[in-house]
Design a protein that fits this description.
The structure is a single chain. By secondary structure, the chain is mostly beta strands. The protein has one helix and twelve strands. It has one helix at 141-144; strands at 6-7, 15-16, 28-29, 33-35, 48-55, 62-69, 77-78, 85-89, 93-100, 105-112, 117-123, 130-135. Strand 10 and strand 11 (117-123) form a beta hairpin. The protein is globular.
């Protein structure tokens, strides 16, 4: 499984491009996200980053990995130090990464579906990650199905 690729000037008309991240050596590219680092906060002098969980050659294991683009997301180079986050779990997926200005770090939200919760991680450079906190578990798995993370964004509660 590989990451397809398309671009659009208006989110209505799309141009398909060559595959962005290709499966190699049994490592499949599943769901993930892209975070743009125009300010080069990570110290890699790149215009974008892509995250994806993969199933490496080790059966039943998903990890978080990094690929870098220096041409506005047209091509990506996989980081030689991958995986950047390995919890040794069968299901560890759906990463969403954003820059969190108040704490001057990148924040990743990823799903631990077997525990029915999401976990938050923090990083200053997109390569070394610390666990910040967990949310969940929420509801019995047999009633709610497998947990997933859709889009993540900062939100201030109305009560402060």
């Amino acid at each position: 499984m590989s990451w397809g690729h398309a671009v659009s000037p208006d989110l209505v008309r799309w141009t398909h491009l060559p595959v962005a991240l290709r499966e190699e050596d049994g490592i499949m590219i599943f769901s993930g996200s892209v975070v743009v680092d125009h300010e080069d906060r990570s110290g890699s002098a790149a215009g974008g980053r892509a995250w994806w969980p993969s199933t490496p050659g080790i059966p039943d294991r998903q990890t978080q990995n990094l690929a870098v683009s220096r041409d506005r997301g047209r091509t990506f180079t996989k980081y030689a130090g991958n995986p950047v986050l390995d919890l040794g779990r069968k299901d560890f997926r759906d990463p969403k990464v954003l820059w969190h200005a108040p704490t001057a770090r990148f924040v990743m939200v990823a799903v631990l579906p077997d525990e029915h919760k999401v976990r938050f991680f923090g990083s200053r450079d997109l390569k070394r990650w610390d666990t910040l906190s967990d949310f969940g578990p929420r509801g019995p798995r047999e009633e709610c199905g497998s947990a997933r993370t859709s889009s993540s964004f900062p939100w201030k509660a109305s009560r402060g």
